[in-house]
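Fill in residues.
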């Protein structure tokens, strides 16, 4: 068996959580990540017949039976993942009953997966139904995006339009827009179901006055998506209170979309 601490999927989780912490998106135990792993790759590092313990998930994830995920732990701090991955991360497999997680590695102090596992697994199911390459769901608390949810209307189309206008790159990185949920209690199946429903039509979902969910085919892509949404929100928070002299027009947004061969979310551009 190879040393799992050197596995790309463990090293990358450490690096990503450290970056997110340094960007101020994951104070204290804020944020959580889940990443769908390739069974063959995991088998190079772990005996897949050895289940350390089982943990009930509290919801039905039948569509993911047998799938293996690396996930951050509940109450764990992103700033600590890189120095102690085995305690702060876990590798789980969805058991045959669809409602139990089998712990294959990690959570070494007896801990368990993120309290947001419902939102993560339900979002994985949604994203995989529209994009079989999707592997990552990532949640964090980007400062400017949160600020924006206090001063901007929370309508998906107008929120997306404002973000698209903030930098030329936005249309290229998130032509599918950002879905916006009103404030809801976190950690529940209800917010998980609402997030997953929105994830069918966009890879980013805003939790108003809380944070952001992003999806992607790998950690880089999901991280880059969140980074771009947050950059746009930062620009908005810098200029929202100033007279707007210039803007990127809808015609120009369409020119960007055409040049980069992306389809803007319908119903937004005039
Ligand atoms: O895991 O961010 O939404 C801590 C959170 C809950
Ligand atoms: Zn959160």
């Amino acid at each position: 068996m190879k040393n799992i601490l050197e596995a790309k999927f463990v090293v990358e989780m450490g690096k990503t959580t450290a970056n997110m912490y340094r960007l101020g998106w994951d104070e204290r135990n804020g944020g959580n990540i889940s990443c769908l792993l390739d069974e063959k790759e995991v088998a190079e590092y772990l005996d897949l017949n050895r289940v350390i313990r089982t943990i009930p998930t509290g919801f039905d994830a039948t569509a993911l039976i047998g799938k293996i995920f690396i996930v951050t732990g509940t109450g764990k701090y992103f700033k600590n993942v890189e120095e102690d991955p085995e305690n702060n991360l876990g590798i789980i497999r969805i058991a045959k009953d669809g409602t139990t997680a089998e712990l294959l590695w990690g959570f070494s102090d007896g801990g368990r997966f993120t309290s947001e596992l419902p939102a993560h697994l339900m979002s994985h199911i949604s994203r995989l139904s529209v994009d079989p390459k999707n592997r990552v769901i990532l949640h964090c608390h980007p400062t400017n995006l949160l600020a924006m949810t206090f001063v901007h209307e929370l309508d998906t189309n107008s929120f997306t339009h404002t973000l698209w206008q903030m930098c030329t790159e936005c249309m290229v990185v998130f032509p599918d827009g950002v879905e916006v949920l009103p404030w809801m209690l976190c950690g529940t199946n209800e917010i998980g179901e609402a997030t997953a429903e929105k994830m069918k039509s966009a890879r980013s979902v805003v939790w108003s006055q809380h944070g952001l969910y992003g999806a992607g085919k790998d950690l880089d892509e999901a991280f880059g998506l969140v980074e771009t949404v947050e950059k746009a929100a930062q620009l908005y928070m810098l200029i929202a209170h100033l007279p707007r002299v210039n803007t990127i027009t809808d015609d120009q947004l369409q020119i960007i979309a055409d040049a980069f061969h992306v389809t803007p979310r319908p119903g937004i551009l005039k």
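The chain has two domains: 1-114, 116-270.
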